[in-house]
Amino acid sequence: MVMVMVKIDEQGRLIIPKEIRERKKITNEVILEETKDGIIIKPKSALTWKQFFETKLKLNWAKVRKLDLSEENFDDMWL
Q: Which fold has domain 1-44?
């Protein structure tokens, strides 16, 4: 585990070092989880097929449900 200290600017932004972003595959979105001890920053999880059809293609999931790809990881399917 790596511990790094970063500054927070006047707008409340912080920069995650490039090495950590690359290692954790962080691109443009993260999930912030507040705990009693602080804040956990997690990479946003990959889209499922259901999320892809509904958000990116704007399709009615009930119509494409027969494909049964709802639990597949969209990012893994491109390999």
A: Pemi-like Protein 1; Chain: D (2.10.260)
